[in-house]
Amino acid sequence: MRIEEEYKKTGYFWLPEKEDNKIPGVLTIDDGGRIELEIVGHFDESVDFLNDNEDLSRIIGHVEKDGLVTLDNCFYTKKNFSFGGISKSKILVHKVLSGAAWDKDEVVSFNTFSFSVDCLDEWVGISGINVDNDRESRTATINYNPPEKISLLLDNGMKLEICFSYTLPGLTNITEAKITQRAYFRLESEGLLDLSDFTVVAFKITNLMCFAMDEIVAMKNVSATSYELKRDGEKYPASISVYYQSKPFVEKLPKKNWHDMLFNFGAIKSNAQQVFNNWINAYKYLSPALGLYFSTKSGAQKYLEGKFLSLAQGLETYHRRTSSETLMELDSFELLVKEILKSCPDKNVDWLKGRLMHGNEINLRKRLKRIIEPFKDHLGTSRERSKLLKKIVDTRNYLTHYSESLKGDSAKGRELWVLCQKMEVIFNLHFLKVVGFDDEEISGVVRNCYPLKRKLQEI
Q1: Do residues 165 and 238 both lie within one domain?
Q2: CB atoms within 10 A of CB 50
Q3: How many independent structural domains does the chain possess?
Q4: Does pLDDT of 84 surpass 70?
Q5: Disulfide engineering: 132 pairs with which of 52, 141, 251, 319, CB 3.0-4.6 Å?
Q6: 13 contact partners, CB below 8 Å, separation of at least 6
Q7: Which residues pair with 90 in a beta bridge?
Q8: pLDDT in tens, 110-127
C-alpha cells in the first residue's frame, strides 16, 4: 500500500474494555503499509508483566486529527520494563481502521470498499475537464462535467465501479482556479462482508492493473463503509480509512503513459465486465502461475537466475493448470505400469512405484512447445523457436541440478536476461488470451505496445 503523505500521529491507546488504562503513544504507517505503535510502558500493569500471553488482538486509540482508530492483529516486537524510569515498547500492527472503534470480539464488516492504484488515471483515460483557449482574444474557458461512473457486475456477487472524485476552485481565490479529478475503484456488496472478502478481490484487481500497465503499481487511498456504521447526526455511512501492508508494492513511484501499457481501459471498454471477471476467475486455477509471474515483476527475485527459474516454473505450472495432456491414454499407462510392476522384485516395488508416479507426464520441452504454439507467429522462425526452447530447457536443468554436462549449454549474462524477456512475453500473450483478447486483438497489442515489441526484438 502506498502512503503518499507521512503518517505519524500521537494519541492515547488502550485495550478494549480497559479504557481506564490509556497509554500515550505514536502510531506510524510507513510507505508500503508497515504499521508500528510505540507506547510508553506496556498495557499489562500487573505483577505478572513478564508473561507473553497478553492479548493484543485488538487495540483502540484516539489520535490527532483522525480521532478513533482500531488496531487489529498486534504483537510486541519490543517490550521494555522500567523500575522508576521511562521505558518504551514497540508493537507491530497488521491493520488500522481509522474513524471508529470496535469492541474486543466485535466483527468488522463492510458493504463497500474503495481504493485507487498508481497510474489509474492514465489507464482509465477519461476526463471531464475541457479547456478552450482563444489566443486572439487572450481568453480561456475551462469546463468540467464529472464523468459518469462505470458499473460492472462481478461473478462473485459484488459490483465493481470505476468512479471519479474531483475538487473545484474556491470562490474567494482570484489568482488561481484549479480543478482536479482522480479515478478510483469501488467494490460494493448488498450484504455486509468481512474486510478480507474485499481485500482479496482488490488484490486481484491490482494485479490486473500491474499486468495491463506492464508495471508494478500499488494500492492507495483505501476506505470502506458500512450501512450500519454512521456518525452521530449524519445521514450517510461513515468512511473508514483502511491501512495494511498490501501487495504488490515497490518503493519507486511508477510513471506510465497509455502507449507504454499492454492495454488501457479504452481497449476493453466494450467488454470490460467480462475482462475483469475472466481475470478474477482465473485465480481459481492459475493462482500459482500468476504468483510466480508477479514475483519476478515485483523484485522478489533479487538475482537473474532466480527470476529465470520462477518464470520457467511459472510457465510449466501454467501448462499443467490449463492442459491435461499426457504421454499416453490413462488406461494404457495404468496397464503398462501394472505389467512393469509384475516383473519387479518385491523389495523394489515401492521404489519403482515412486519412479513411475509421474511417468505419464510430458516433459518441460513439450510443455513449452505447446505454450508457444498459439503465438508462434510472434516468436520468430521455426529455427529460432527451437533454439529458444532448447536454451530454456538446458538452462532450467542446469540451474536446478548444476550438472557439469549442461554448464556450457546454459544461458548466462545478457543471454539469460534476454531469455527472461522472451518468457515474460509468452506469459503476457497467454494472459491476454485469459482475459478475453482474440488473436486479432493480441496482434494489435504486439504491433502497438512498445515495451512488448522491444522484448520480442531482443537478441
Answers
A1: yes
A2: 8
A3: 3
A4: no
A5: 141
A6: 22, 23, 24, 25, 27, 37, 39, 59, 60, 61, 62, 71
A7: 38, 78
A8: 999 999 999 999 999 999
